């Protein structure tokens, strides 16, 4: 990775801050690490960063405020927000305000590296887009004398990522991109098939879905009614057990006898 890549790390937990700085420095990045939102804003005023790793929950100025300043002053800077399981809703809000990605704390090294890699790629694409936009605006100014130099050049809004990747119903949030789900702030850990089943039921709720449809749409093959019933019953049993263990809820998935299943989180 380019040694000139400059990353801002903002986290009020010394252990996490040191860990992130160590991983990123080893990967060849130049890292500035600070302990608060206030310190982050001071750094943003002084210099431009290629990417920022930003804790959402800090005393004083929080991550959402810092994100807003970064988006205003340096829209090409990719921002990865750091969050606890219970604050996934805040992470969703951050994505809608222009963050590139989110990571759960404590972060896994492989996830950090992959998110940073894709974030830097996105930042470079945005830099190129801004350059082309500036050239186009200069061309219009030269040819038509519009806009005049004393007029502000209107910025082009960047469509925020993450608006189509989430399913939400009450306290349940499902991230289709990261294959992550939380219920009432508790992380739910599923196998790929279990996650896909839950996501499909949430996307169709409150409609009751037959076992045959679940097998067809989620697992990709046609089955006899008895086969589908036995297959889905097994997966639903595992889903319910994991949901109860993580969030203490046994009423999320409802069985309508003789018809099928639905997600009921009202």
Structure in words:
The strands form three sheets. This protein has a five-stranded parallel sheet, with helices on both faces. The chain has a four-stranded antiparallel sheet with strand order 6-7-8-9, with helices on both faces. A two-stranded antiparallel ribbon has the order 10-11. The protein is built from eight helices and eleven strands. The protein has two domains: 6-124, Response regulator (Rossmann fold, 3-Layer(aba) Sandwich), CATH 3.40.50.2300; 166-263, Arc Repressor Mutant, subunit A, CATH 1.10.10. By secondary structure, the protein is of the alpha/beta class. Mean pLDDT is 86; it is low at 146-163.
Compile the SSE list and pairings.
Blueprint: E1 6-10, H1 14-26, E2 30-34, H2 37-46, E3 51-55, H3 63-73, E4 78-83, H4 88-96, E5 101-104, H5 109-144, E6 166-169, E7 172-175, E8 180-183, E9 186-188, H6 192-204, H7 211-219, H8 225-247, E10 253-256, E11 260-263
Parallel strand pairs: 1-2, 1-3, 3-4, 4-5
Antiparallel strand pairs: 6-7, 7-8, 8-9, 10-11
Helix pairs in contact: 2-3, 6-7, 6-8, 7-8
């Amino acid at each position: 990775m380019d040694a000139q890549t400059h990353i801002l790390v903002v986290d009020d937990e010394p252990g996490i801050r040191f860990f992130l700085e160590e991983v990123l420095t080893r990967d060849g990045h130049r890292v500035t690490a600070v302990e608060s939102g206030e310190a982050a804003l001071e750094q943003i005023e002084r210099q431009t960063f290629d990417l920022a790793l930003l804790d959402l929950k800090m005393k004083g100025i929080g991550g959402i405020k810092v994100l807003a300043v970064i988006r205003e002053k340096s829209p090409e800077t990719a921002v990865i927000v750091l969050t606890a399981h219970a604050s996934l809703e805040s992470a969703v809000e951050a994505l809608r305000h222009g963050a590139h990605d989110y990571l759960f704390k404590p972060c896994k090294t492989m996830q950090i590296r992959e998110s940073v890699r894709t974030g830097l790629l996105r930042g470079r694409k945005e830099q190129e887009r801004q350059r082309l936009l500036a050239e186009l605006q200069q061309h219009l100014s030269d040819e038509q004398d519009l806009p005049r130099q004393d007029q502000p050049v209107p910025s082009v809004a960047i469509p925020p990522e993450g608006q189509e990747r989430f399913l939400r119903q009450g306290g349940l949030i499902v991230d289709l991109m990261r294959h992550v789900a939380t219920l009432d702030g508790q992380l739910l850990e599923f196998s790929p098939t279990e996650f896909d089943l839950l996501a499909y039921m949430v996307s169709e709720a409150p409609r009751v879905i037959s076992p045959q449809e679940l097998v067809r749409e989620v697992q990709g093959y046609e089955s006899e009614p008895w086969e589908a019933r036995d297959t889905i019953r097994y997966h639903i049993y595992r889903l319910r057990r994991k949901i109860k263990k993580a969030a203490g809820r046994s009423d999320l998935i409802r069985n309508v006898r003789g018809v099928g299943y639905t997600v009921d989180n009202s």
